Structure formats: C-alpha cells, structure tokens
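Checklist before submission:
- one chain only
- standard amino acids only
- sequence pasted in full

Submission:
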Amino acid sequence: MRSIMPRRLTTLLTTLTLCGLLACQAYAWEYPVTVTTDTCLSLVPSCAIDDEGNLHFFFANNRYAEGSSYLEVFHSKYSLEGVRLTEDVRISHSYSYYPEPDAIFGSDQKLHVIWDDNSWMEPSPKGIYYSRLDIEGNIEREATLVFPCLAVDPVPLFQSSDGNLNVVWVGDHDTLYYGKFDTSGQVIIPQTVVHTTGSAGNIYYMYACIDTQDRIHSIWRRGYGGPGEFNIGYSRISCEGEVLIDYAPLTPQDPDTGCIGGAVVTDENNDVHIIYLKTLFDGQHQFYRKVDNDLNTIYDIMLVEPVMSGSEIGFGDMSLDSYGNVVMAFAYNHSGIEENYKRATYSIEGEELIAPEYIVSDGPLENISYPDLNATVGGTVVFTYWAGVDWCSSGKVHYTYTIDELAVNNSNCPPYPVSLNLSIFPNPSNATTTISFALPEAVHVKLTIFNINGQVVETLIDGYREAANHQVTFDASHLASGLYFYRIEAGSYSDVKKMVLVK
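Returned file contents:
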C-alpha cells in the first residue's frame, strides 16, 4: 500500500467481546468521487488519511504544461464524503517525467510526500524530492532534493518509530537502494545498496512495507532469463541501514510459472503477506501468500479463477483493517490494461472474510490503473485510482470508499432486536442532530460518539434507561467536519452506525 494508517486493534463494536466469532460484512462501495476536475492529464495518485478522517491526495498533473508528458506534483484535501476542503496546492516547481508521489500522515501530525524526478529539464536535477505540509495543506518544507539519483519505480515512504523518514527505490543498473532522512530533508543514512542483480537479471515492479520492528520488506519482479522468465524477489533492511536479507526468492525460478508481485504488508506478528500474479498453462492466476519471518510459506491461496486467454490480472495494493485483517485490491479480467478492480479480505490465519467483489469497473474506452488502498481504524476502506483513455493525454484521479462493519456469526449471541431502531437525523448535519432508539426492556445504556480513528469524542448516555422510545440531542459544533460513528450498547445488544458532519 502506498500509505498505511497506524495499526490499532481497538474495535468499534462490543460484539467482538460478547461473541468472539466475527465475520466482516461489506457495505456497498460509494459512487466514485472525481478529485481532479480540470481537463489536464492527472496521474499516479497517493492518498493519506489524517486523524480527522479527511483525505489528502497527492498526484501528478500537467496543467502548467498541457499536452506535455512533463508533470508537477499537487496536493488536494477532501472530506471522506467528497467535499473539497482546499484548492489544489502546487508542491513541485519543476517539470518531471511522470513523477510518482507517495505520501503518509505522520506521527507528528504532518503530511510527508516524496516523488521521483527523472527529467533532465532545468532547473532541477533528477532525484528523489521531499516536501512537508501541515494538515490544512500549507507547505512547511519546500521541495527538497534528498537523494540525487535515478529512481525507476515508485518510491515508497515510511516513518520509523524515531520519527524519521525512510525510502527504498530501484535505481540504475537494476539495483535496490535504501536511504533515511529527517523531516527537514536532512539526510541521515545516505543512498545504500540493498541488492543488485548485476548480469543475473533485473528488478521491476517493486513494492514495500514497514513492520513493527522498523524493518522494511521489499518485493519485486526479478527477471532472470528470456521473456516470461521471472520470479518474486525479496529483501529486508532495518531502518538503521543494516541489510538483513539482500535477496531471497519468494517464488521459484521456473520458466513455466512466471510471477509478478502485486503488493506486500506485514501483520502484528511481522509475518509477510503478498498478493501476486502467477502465469500457468491455463491462464493467469491471482494468489495471496503468507510467509513467516524465516520466509517459510504458511499458506498460498488462489483468490480468483484464471482469466481468459489474452487478459491479465494483478497489479494491486494491500492494507490492514482495524481488526488486523488483510484487505487487498487487484486488477481483474482486463485486456492488457486495468479496467476492473476487485477487493477481498482475509484474516491473517487465511480465512476468507469477504469474497472477491468488484470495487470499480469501467467500459472498454476507459482504463483504470495506479491503485492505492487504505483501511482505517474506523472501518473505512478507501480506494484511490486513475481512470482515463490513455496515459499520455487524458485521465483523472478518483476515489471510492466503503464501510466494513462486523456481523456476528454465533448462535449463542442474542438476536439484534429490530425494535431498537437506532437512527440519527439530520444526517449529514452541520451542528446539532438527534439520535433516536427504542428499548424493548429496561437496561443499562451507553451511547458513544467515535471519530474515524476509534477515539471517543463524547459519551452521551451511560446509565439505566426504561423500556421506551428515547431521543438524545448531540451538539457537534465543537467537532471538525468528517465521518464519525455513534454506538449504542444496550444490555447484551450493540450497534454502530455512521454520521457525517459538514460545516
């Protein structure tokens, strides 16, 4: 994934402790929101989500050189529901040849973004650039060249526990590099070689993630022979610059089963999860694999049936949801270019929780690519992507989202009473709203408001209530715009729903 929210195991539902056996229920994906509305080419989106649940998009755009393949990096801020909160901010001031930004919302409550500039155009030299913004999108650190180099793949950005920033990238001569710098752009660990293939092959389609021990895990397609002869390579490096594994094959070097990595995440046990494309005699398959710290395979699951001849699958993104489950998105059944994307969710034990389902699908005249998937603590899954006719002259950045809540699958749990009728009006609201519910019996009731990160912002009721229809007024004037959740616990029953504040 291009940006990962901090992992918290706090759940918004008390049914987790009441029943202990959970299955995820997928709500419908919202109608896509178009982030870039001008007529210029916009590419390579990266989304970072702040602690108020707002979305920060970083993307490449050629509005100042329309018709050109040289683009600049911009920032735009939206609420989850699609309300634009800032105008586009121009971050870079030099034209790059298809720069690919990657952004995170850091522990310092700042937005950090990097991108590659492989242009020879003046005034800026090629290399990896960095900028820092505040939560309102104001630039605090102007574009700074941190590593003068050639970077041929997207450059993923991670913040380690010391607050500093870490990057890995593929450079010239098929070499994987690592570097570290602080939030002012000062280099701490200079460009360091992690792995080089030399004459043994090449590195392409690199993905990476960081684990709880400040170790970066990278996977990539490693070519080692003729066309179609490639496997998935793996490297591991500490955020102190120590190369722990320079290269290990995650899939065998078998010319009959070429593999391409699609994304990688690590779970709370620091086991590694990847999705990847495997080409077999009967077509192309999408697989999901888990390996332990010693790279022993724990399971290897085929997600979907092979697609028809001449089509492709693969090229996706992964994230962990608020319960530690693995959420993945991948291209499916397209004719050479991504036109459809599917999503699936699995527990880290390999149990299918949400079967592959369509996120977004476009017709034959428009293509979809550059996926970016983020799962947040509040149960929201955001999918950002590019859609357009071609990469050279058109295309816009879009996003869609869904809410994953928990459905209880245990017959020992009491059925949820329809008569509880938890509701809120108005919704969306700009200040004051009324929450209603009905109690079939007298019980202790707790009614709580949470933000998207699972933090309690207000407790409206915490006490005994009689069997009756109840209403409580909630004054949200002190809260920022965004998505919130209201949860009721009434005896052995529990329910949670969403509310939207728009100011």
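Reviewer check: Helices lie at 15-19.
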